[in-house]
Design a protein that fits this description.
Elements: H1 5-18, E1 23-28, H2 35-44, H3 58-62, E2 73-80, E3 97-98, H4 107-125, E4 131-134, H5 142-148, E5 153-154, E6 160-161, E7 168-175, H6 195-199, H7 217-223, H8 230-235, E8 239-241, H9 245-248, H10 251-254, H11 258-264, H12 279-283, H13 287-294, H14 303-318, H15 324-330, H16 336-363
Parallel strand pairs: 3-8
Antiparallel strand pairs: 1-2, 2-7, 4-7, 5-6
Bound molecules: cobalamin and iron/sulfur cluster (SF4).
Length: 364
């Protein structure tokens, strides 16, 4: 095929939709003023908590063209994941607070499969073209790149947002083909709105466009390994994996995104949630249970110990006496992290019992 950069771009954008993505755009790879220095400033301010891997390969991270020899452009894709009509909202008994993106199949697998298919199609049509795909895993500033490709603008909660909201995930295919870049979004979608900053229960958004991972529930429940410091335990509330608060309050997320309609036709988007989950089952999760239940779920990222720890902490923060038996059992666990967090939660339950008794005495 010998089309010019513009028609080639149109062709590939169409193929990206056919491969199962909801939206796609092309980013040029010339270094962009501001992006690299903004990343390095965040690194210096220590905003990444223990995620030291974010500080590695910074050269590649801030110069995306270095990720593939001869790279000329990136085909960026978005996959929407807002749950379907009728699905239970997170937070109930059967579905504890699990971030929406994590309630279905693992998006890494889904997106990688689709990107691989897309990559083969492109390489067949353009023999000699080089391609390299990423979904989350490489040293790529995915939001900055997708913003250049016109898939949205960085919002004050640091998520990429467009008029259809921010319930979407990102991936990209670096290509040696020259393609006409898409137009970045010219609008400022946030304006004066500060709802996400005000709603964050832990102050993890100290200023617009800045996230302090050390205070973010998503960081503590997904990325942090081992013991949670006491301050973090009360901070995470009853979230057991991730957190959606700063997105839930965003006015753009109140309206259902157009691609979701296509998703409900079963063609696009992330497959919806697979099964119910409850806190007691999560706390007593066996190794086999972990492997079979979470093999295809992004929740495996926290590990079995992390998920059990999070369930114990959520029980303590809900302070529901119905959890006492399960927590007593977990206090005998082989896993020291599970043991100590179950102990902490039992203390919370005991304090709550005393508190209730005191208030009854006052009423008497
Ligand atoms: C590490 C990480 C986390 C960490 C830290 C997040 C952070 N702010 O860095 C933790 C675990 C906390 C996390 C949480 C979440 N994450 Co996360 N995370 C990542 C990961 C792997 C790396 C992010 C990174 O490089 N951070 C370093 C910072 C400095 O980079 P940055 O924020 O991208 O900033 C650059 C640009 O945004 C730009 N920029 C910054 N400010 C501004 C301001 C303006 C005005 C402009 C124009 C540009 C601009 O310059 C910066 C420097 O280059 C990415 C995947 C990837 N490879 O990019 C997913 C990713 C960002 N996460 C994602 C998601 C979905 C989430 C959660 C919603 C999950 C959840 N429900 O719990 C939360 C949201 C928390 C929040 N409010 O942001 C999605 C975001 C999709 C989207 N629509 O934006 C990504 C892209 C994964 C994916 N492949 O889809 N995440
Ligand atoms: S994900 Fe939750 S804790 Fe993290 S910044 Fe958003 S609201 Fe705050």
């Amino acid at each position: 095929m010998s089309e010019g950069p513009a028609s080639r771009a149109d062709l590939l954008l169409g193929w990206a939709l056919e491969a199962g993505f909801d939206r796609a755009g092309i980013a040029a790879l010339e270094p962009q003023a501001g992006t690299g220095s903004s990343f390095l400033r965040r690194l210096e301010r220590g905003l990444f908590a223990s995620m030291s891997w974010l500080g590695r390969r910074t050269g590649r991270r801030v110069v995306p063209a270095s990720l593939l020899d001869g790279a000329r452009s990136a085909l960026c894709v978005a996959l929407h994941y807002h749950p379907l009509e009728g699905e239970p909202e997170p937070g109930g008994d059967l579905w504890p607070r699990v971030a929406r993106y994590a309630r279905g199949d693992d998006y890494h697998d889904v997106m990688e499969r689709r990107l691989r298919r897309l990559s083969s199609r492109i390489r067949e049509a353009f023999p000699g073209a080089g391609a390299r795909l990423y979904v989350d895993t490489g040293p790529v500033l995915e939001r900055a790149l997708a913003a250049r490709a016109g898939l949205g603008a960085v919002a004050k909660n640091t998520q990429l947002l467009d008029r259809s909201g921010s319930w979407f995930l990102l991936g990209e295919l670096f290509l040696t083909l020259e393609l006409e870049p898409s137009e970045p979004l010219a609008e400022d979608l946030c304006g004066d709105c500060r709802r996400c900053l005000e709603a964050c229960p832990t102050g993890a958004l100290p200023e617009p466009y800045v996230l302090d991972a050390e205070r973010c529930i998503s960081y503590w429940t997904i990325e942090h390994r081992g013991e949670m410091p006491e301050e973090a335990r009360s901070m995470v509330g009853d979230w057991v994996f991730g957190c959606d608060i700063c997105q839930e309050v965003c006015p753009w997320n109140r309206h259902r995104a157009a691609p979701v309609e296509r998703q409900s036709a079963g063609v696009f988007g992330l497959p919806p949630s697979r099964a119910e989950l409850d806190l007691t089952a999560l706390l007593s999760l066996s190794e086999d249970g972990y492997r079979s239940r979470f093999r295809h779920s992004p929740m495996k990222r926290a590990g079995r110990s992390g998920l059990r720890r999070n369930a114990a902490v959520a029980m303590g923060n809900r302070a529901d006496q119905a959890y006492a038996v399960a927590l007593e059992r977990a206090r005998e666990s082989d896993d020291p992290v599970v043991r100590s967090h179950a102990g902490w939660s039992l203390e919370r339950l005991a304090e709550d019992r005393v508190g209730v008794r005191k208030s009854l005495e006052i009423r008497d």
